[in-house]
Amino acid sequence: MSISGNSSTNKDTVGYLDRVSSEASLDDKGRSALSPPDGGWGWVIVSSSLITRVILSGLQSSSGFFYLKFEEKYHQSAALTLWMCTLPGVLRTVLGVGMCLVFSPSVIIVNQYFSKRRGLANGIAGSTFGAFLFPAAIEFLFEFYGFFGAFLIQSGLVLNIVVCGSLFRPLLIEQNCKRKSRQTTNPEPSLKREQGYVECCNKSHFVNRCCSHSNIKNILVDYRFLSYIIAVALFYVSNQSVYAFIPLLAREVGIEGHNSVYVVTATVFFAGIGRIFYGAVNDMRFFRRYKIIVYNVLMVSTGITYLILPAATSTFTTMCVLYSIYGFMTGCIISQKSVIMVDIVGVENLVNALGILLLFQGVGSCVGPIISGYITDTSDTTSGVIYFGGICTTAGAIIFSTANVVHWIKMRRRAKSGNDMSITSRNLIV
After folding, report:
1. Nearest of 226, 172, 222 to residue 27 by alpha carbon
2. Neighbours of 257 (CB within 10 A)
3. Distance CA 363, CA 398 (A)
4. What average pLDDT score do residues 338-355 get?
5. What CATH number is associated with residue 353?
6. How far apart are CA 73 and CA 30, in angstroms?
7. Is residue 63 part of a domain?
8. Are 400 and 227 in contact (CB under 8 A)?
9. Is residue 201 a part of any domain in this protein?
10. I need a surface site. Which of 70, 141, 207, 225 has the fewest CB within 10 A?
11. Considering only CA atoms, which of 276, 261, 226 is closest in space to residue 123?
12. The whole model's pTM is what?
């Protein structure tokens, strides 16, 4: 009795959603109401996401100064102190608390509002311009306000994220607001339709929960996605540790005082340049087909740059130049993670795919500082940490590249055999 009742309820729900969504799917000009607008309120979303990530990235890129302050105050081992500095990132990506409640929505909602300009929108939102000011500002706060005063002021700064989050308007509500503003002559039908959308959203939540489990299974059997999350995990094994060790590396080569702050500032600044530049390039018609290939090349190049850094950074000038190059390439890689995921699994699976990616990213962020700290404690030098990061990043890039080569070969064979007429030149690359 109850089983048949639940089946009937599910059918009624799905039927209701089909009827309401069919009415909601077209606007006054017959276009899809939930299609990405590629502009409009989307640029407000991009601006809010940018400010949010500037604050988060600025604090993370200053982990090297936090490391020095924690070491000075608590006198613990490098492994424990470094893990303590990267703990916020671990909580974000493994447990889904703290910064994850801000970062994940800021990524997803930008991709929902943009399609043709998705690369540029993600590049701007993830550019973190302004984050390069944080290292010098945080050094100033610790110098003039002390240990607890500096953290208190930073806490107040982070609260500004609440204002940015209030501007993250879901796409369905945005489209409904536009429609409501155009229907001023007959408000009653508009009100009824608005109520229908609310009911649709409530009932669609039930259906989405039923479909989510199967979507995750489909994502996890995609070997390209699996290779990508492994590559990202290996990349993050060392990425946060490098930022934490820049002041220490500077001190080892005789760079003292505010000069180490300038090295971190240059790294973060060019990371922002790289995010916007690569986002704009990805949206160009010529590069659109080859974005995953270029992404693979960037990951390999970043791994090689890691291996060059310790031997080539003997002076302040060379250190600034090489770390600027490193920041530029890592900015390119980080800013387009969601774009690459959309190309692999589709925008409809982005929410689940991003959650899985952040889990693996968190594992790398959790394990990396412990290993990096152990290397520093046993070798009394930070060069080993950079070499370790280069090996991990290069290994991840090779894994992801291999999966893409296998995918390309399979697509070529299917295209030549003529079994799948839907295969296009774009599929062969992407």
Report:
1. 172
2. 10
3. 20
4. 83
5. 1.20.1250.20
6. 64
7. yes
8. yes
9. no
10. 207
11. 276
12. 0.67
Pull the structure tokens for residue 6: 């639940």
Q: Rounded mean pLDDT of 386-392?
A: 88
Contacts of 378 (CB under 8 A, 6+ apart): none
Residue with tokens 């949206």: 283
Lowest-confidence segment of 160-169, 191-200, 301-310, 368-377 by average pLDDT: 191-200
Please write the tens of the pLDDT for every residue from 145-180: 988 898 899 889 888 888 988 888 877 665 655 565
3-state secondary structure of 315: coil
Residue 303 structural domain: 36-176+222-429
Q: Report the pLDDT value the prediction gives residue 197, as an integer from 0 to 100.
A: 45
Total domains, the chain: 1
Work out the number of other CB atoms within 10 angstroms of the CB of residue 347. 17
Q: Does 19 fall in a domain? A: no
Find the helix or strand (DSSP H, E) in which 21 lies: helix 2-24
Q: Is residue 208 part of a domain?
A: no
The C-alpha atoms of residue 326 and residue 393 are separated, in whole angstroms, by 12
DSSP string, 218-285: HHHT-HHHHHHHHHHHHHHHHHHHHHHHHHHHHHHTT--THHHHHHHHHHHHHHHHHHHHHHHHHTSH
**What span, in angstroms and rounded, lies between the C-alpha atoms of 299 and 43?**
29
φ and ψ at residue 26, rounded to 5 degrees: -120, 140
Q: How many CB atoms lie within 10 A of CB 75?
A: 8
pLDDT(34) > 70: no
Q: Of 39-43, 63-67, 261-265, which range is least confident?
A: 63-67
* CA angle at 318 for the pair 316 and 322, rounded to the nearest 5°: 120
Amino acid occupying residue 105: P
User: Closest Cα to residue 232, out of 92, 333, 83, 103?
Assistant: 333
Q: Please tell me the distance from the alpha carbon of residue 221 to that of residue 226, in angstroms, as a whole number.
A: 8
The mean pLDDT value for 304-322 works out to 82
Q: For residue 293, what are its two tokens?
A: 């290939």
DSSP 100-117: HHHHHHHHHHHHHH-STT
